[in-house]
């Protein structure tokens, strides 16, 4: 099997010769070639410039030979397309004005991905032209709840106090925002597929702050709406929910083809709880790649034993840490290729 056949088959829970491997945030700050581009461009310029985004997408494939590429972009470009000011500083992203009132919500505008996010489509087309034909390209977006949380917070604050406050003080406003976002995210992902993505991933990295009942009310229905709207395109959908362990059975109800699992739960336990009809992705702790190659190889063997190689995409349980040594990434990718076959 080539990389594309292997990756798509694994996402569809079909037999493979070995599990495929790619990494969340594989195009990023740990790469010296990324740092070289970053030295002459700010982060938003890299996202907005198709040629730069294409180059950053291809860099980890050239160096490590993962089975799939993911387009270089940012989940918050949707908020920017809706009219919010987006900037990045030392403390992370800033969105203004924060959506904490009905008047702030009313200032958000509907958008057409072909217009406001055309640069993402152009980057996908360029990457598709330059990637080897057998390497699949992943598109992505933030899930509605995670986007809503960033928009309500106006930043990436860990405590998410503004989000929690609005959930209980003005749930109608939150639901209106989530409704608008679910339509926008679905349109954006469909646009990415039209431009050349063959798999899409929804990142719900903020959903882990929610109690199970609140996840069922504020996150799950809107992720499910996005996934349902993508069904006619017949592309696999991966859903990443950080903190999935406590809400695993509910996340299973999203309709996602692949559940991307963080590193706080064993894949064997996930398989036992969700059954065999859904594929799994993950879930090496990113910190493991600071260890020696023999430890990384042993952890790959353990993950392979937990999944028995069926319906599994090797990945991390979160994104690559900026300080990750190149040797660790190389050891992980090579161990999957050597031990999985």
Describe the structure.
The chain has 341 residues and is α/β, with parallel strands linked by helices. 50% of the residues lie in helices and 13% in strands. Strand 6, helix 13 and strand 7 form a beta-alpha-beta unit. The mean pLDDT is 95.
Outline of the structure:
The chain is of the alpha/beta class.
Secondary-structure element pattern, one letter each: HHHHEHEEHHHEHHHEHEHEHEHEH
The largest β sheet comes out as: 7 strands, parallel
Give the C-level CATH assignment.
Answer: Alpha Beta
Helix content: 40-55%
Report low-confidence residues grouped into runs of 5 or more: none
Total beta strand runs: 9
Q: Termini separation (Å)?
A: 11 Å
CATH topology: TIM Barrel
Shape: globular
Q: Using the CA coordinates, give the radius of gyration.
A: 19 Å
What is the structural class? alpha/beta
- What is the number of helices? 16
| Rounded mean pLDDT score | 95
Q: Into how many domains do the coordinates divide?
A: 1
With strands numbered from the N-terminus, the spatial order across the biggest sheet is: 1-4-5-6-7-8-9
CATH architecture: Alpha-Beta Barrel
Strand content: 5-15%
Please give the structural blueprint.
Blueprint: H1 3-11, H2 32-38, H3 43-48, H4 50-64, E1 69-70, H5 77-81, E2 85-89, E3 92-96, H6 102-106, H7 113-116, H8 118-130, E4 137-142, H9 144-153, H10 161-169, H11 171-195, E5 199-204, H12 212-230, E6 237-241, H13 248-252, E7 258-260, H14 267-274, E8 279-284, H15 293-307, E9 312-316, H16 326-340
Helix pairs in contact: 4-8, 8-11, 9-10, 9-11, 11-12, 15-16
């Amino acid at each position: 099997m080539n990389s594309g056949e292997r990756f798509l088959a694994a996402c569809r829970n079909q037999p493979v010769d070995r599990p495929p491997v790619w990494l969340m945030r594989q195009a990023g700050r740990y790469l010296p070639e990324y740092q070289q581009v970053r030295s002459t461009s700010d982060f938003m310029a890299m996202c907005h410039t198709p040629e730069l985004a294409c180059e950053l997408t291809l860099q980890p494939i050239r160096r490590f030979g993962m089975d799939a590429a993911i387009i270089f972009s940012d989940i918050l470009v949707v908020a920017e397309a809706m009219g919010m000011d987006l900037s990045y500083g030392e403390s992370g992203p800033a969105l203004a004005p924060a959506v904490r009132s009905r008047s702030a919500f009313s200032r958000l505008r509907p958008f057409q991905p072909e217009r406001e996010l055309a640069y993402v489509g152009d980057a996908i087309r360029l990457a598709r032209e330059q990637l080897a034909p057998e390497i699949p390209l992943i598109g992505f977006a933030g899930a509605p709840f995670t986007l809503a949380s960033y928009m309500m917070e106006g930043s990436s604050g860990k405590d998410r106090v503004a989000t929690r406050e609005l959930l209980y003080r003005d749930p109608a406003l939150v639901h209106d925002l989530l409704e608008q976002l679910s339509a926008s995210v679905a349109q954006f992902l469909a646009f990415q597929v039209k431009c050349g993505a063959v798999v899409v991933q929804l990142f719900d990295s903020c959903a882990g702050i929610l109690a199970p009942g609140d996840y069922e009310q504020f996150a799950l229905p809107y992720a499910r709406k996005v996934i349902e709207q993508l069904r006619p395109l017949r592309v696999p959908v991966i859903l990443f929910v950080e903190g999935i362990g406590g809400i695993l059975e509910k996340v299973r109800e999203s309709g996602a083809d692949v559940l991307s699992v963080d590193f706080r739960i064993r894949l064997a336990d996930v398989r036992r709880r969700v059954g065999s009809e859904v594929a799994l992705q993950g879930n090496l702790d990113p910190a493991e790649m600071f260890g020696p190659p023999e430890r990384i190889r042993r952890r790959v063997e353990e993950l392979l034993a937990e999944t028995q190689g069926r319906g599994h995409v090797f990945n991390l349980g979160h994104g690559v840490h900026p300080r990750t040594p190149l040797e660790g990434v190389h050891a992980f990718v090579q161990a999957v290729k050597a031990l999985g076959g």
